[in-house]
Amino acid sequence: MAGCCCSETDPHLQAMRQRQARMLWAVLSINTLMFAAEFGAGWWAGSTALLGDSLDMLGDALVYGLSLFVVARSVQWKAISAAAKGALMLGLGLLVLGEALAKTLSGHVPDSGFMMGVGAVALAANIVCLFLLTRHRDDDVNMRSSWICSRNDLFANGGVIVAGLLVALTDTVWPDVIVGAAIAVLFLQSSIGVLRDARRRYIQAQANEETAEVRVRS
Hints:
- This protein has helices at 11-45, 48-70, 75-106, 112-134, 141-170, 174-217.
- The protein has 218 residues and is mostly helical.
- It has a single domain (11-217), classed as Alpha-lytic protease prodomain-like, CATH 1.20.1510.
- It is elongated, with a radius of gyration of 19 Å.
- The two termini are 28 Å apart.
């Protein structure tokens, strides 16, 4: 559907957008609730990995909100939405890297059992979100960028669980710091890919629009 030239009144296109909107409301609700729960848990446990993962949840909630805003809009708007998501992922990655550095300096060892428990709940929530998004990942650039964000969450959640286990085994802060930094790097890499894809789709949409205008004039 990425290159669909269907009419805006096409019933199949309208039905697809309605399905997208219902799915996006569901994943938006899940991520908003999980952000509140995980941020509080990360603050209480003193875990960089949990705080980073909670910021990822917040970022995803904003991502899905943007996706809802542009679900019935033009390809250009969807490309702009994808670019905003990429910029958000970039900012979150830098923020988590800064938190990892601060944790290195403080040396505070987080509560490993709490980390693993909360990480497991977040993993289950994101598996549900990814399942809902997978059906729509090839619809357009807007939905694909949302799917990429959700896919990254699984790696982040798994990293939190592994970090909790290693903290328990070593009784040091380093597993939490390393996993938090790894999550940040994943954000940064994915953000670059999303930004590139958004730029390419936006240029293509502009070129198609200009071609259509030339045909109309001639």
